[in-house]
Here is the input.
Amino acid sequence: MLMSAAEYRESLRRYRPRVFINGRQIDSVADEPLLAPGIAAVGVTYDFARKLQYAELMTATQSTSGKLVNRMLHINEGSNDLLNKLEAVRLVCAESGCAQRYLSHDALNGLYQSTWLTDANHGTDYHQRFLAYLHEVQEQDLTLGVAMTDAKGDRSLRPGQQENPDVYVHIVERRADGIVISGTKAIVTGAPYMHEFLVMPCRTHTPEDADYAVACAVPVDALGVTIIARPAGRPGESAAKFSAKYGQSTGVVIFEKVFVPHERVFLAGECEEGGFLTTSYATHHRHSCIGARAGFGDLLIGAGALVTEANGLDPERHGHIREAMVELITITESFYACGVAASVYCQDDPAGTVMPDAVFSNIGKLLLANKIYDMHKLAHYVSGGMIVALPGPDEDHNPETAASLAAVLGGRPDIPAAQRLEVARFIEDLTASNQGGWYSVISLHGGGSPEAMKREIWRNYPVYEKRELVERLLDRGVLDEGKRTSRQPGRCCARGCQAPELPSTK
Here is the structure.
């Protein structure tokens, strides 16, 4: 079943989560104005999947069930799936700013791989449990929140060393019919208007911290779950030309002795596989983030073109405008190109799925994390400074000022002043408001900090192969006897080719 956006919103009425926003408990998520922009943004992924022109991008056939499913819930089986997912995420985020539901896709793919691996290593039945859950989610066309980032407490201490153990989600009781978990997940995208949470570890745990290596599915309204969230976007603000319609809530989710039945438990103390799940999800998610921020770039490029036209400037004749627009395009398409490369050079996983190339995925995410601020700067540059002194939108209808403002704030005579003001406020909303600053922060830290991406690039990139290349070119081949360094096995390039073994020098 492929739901529509209206059906998705209606489906939220089946749940009664305990949600607080701005110090007030929310009676009905589906009817709460402060959450409407977030629900609308997720709704784009539902409506676009029902549009014939987007069918190839937005839907796929799940091989394990033979059923047509929303792309945001599909398990990738090849490079084309990754390319279609990347383009689908860009499409829905160009419409909504951030459609959020792609996190469901990323977590499902990570869990598919990690449950298969855990069963192979330990003889468990997690993968069959997960498959049954996956088919249920796909059949109902649900949206899942990713509860991964723990509150963490003192960052210098491991989970088991924390003064308050509930700064990490962990197993507090193991029962014959399931487990009981407690703890806090600090950053859960779209938390109030999800159907269920996928709880996953956010780091590698040691055997001493095995109870923290837990992955499971929990309904948003399960007994013991509390969601403390921020509003989605800027609902009700007349100056919010974009984020009053589309936005994103994030929430702190507190689990207080929440019971999870065995059939919804996908990891329960397997530390090594928990670490694999963390990095697997991160790679899938950073690949998706590339598509998401490319969609955001599309919004800034389009707004830049409109405001340039309204200002009466022609990029063909005004080189400084053309240069700024080309730089904005270059930034957007350069990190998106990393996403394409990560799709093309994907790695086969033993579970029968594919993983985006880790190097290209992390480079693309690192680029967008750092360049989001340059993207904002360039949008400000081409706007001509209008957003600095832009009067509030109420003045557009003030009989004392409207006519005067329209006369002096117009640009090209054939373009109404109201249009120029509208697009200027659009740019302000996306880049210079509290919402704009928030987009920057989630671009920087969403999917992990830049430091985490740098570590993954260094861990996966075959620097030693480049070293050996230069050694051969210097006619040294390998270091002199007695100075020979051991060579690590692994990939010879970011495409995933196996490095050839070099002859021994002994």
Remarks:
- The first helix runs from residue 5 to 11.
- Residues 224 and 256 are 5 Å apart (CA to CA).
- The chain has a mean pLDDT of 90.
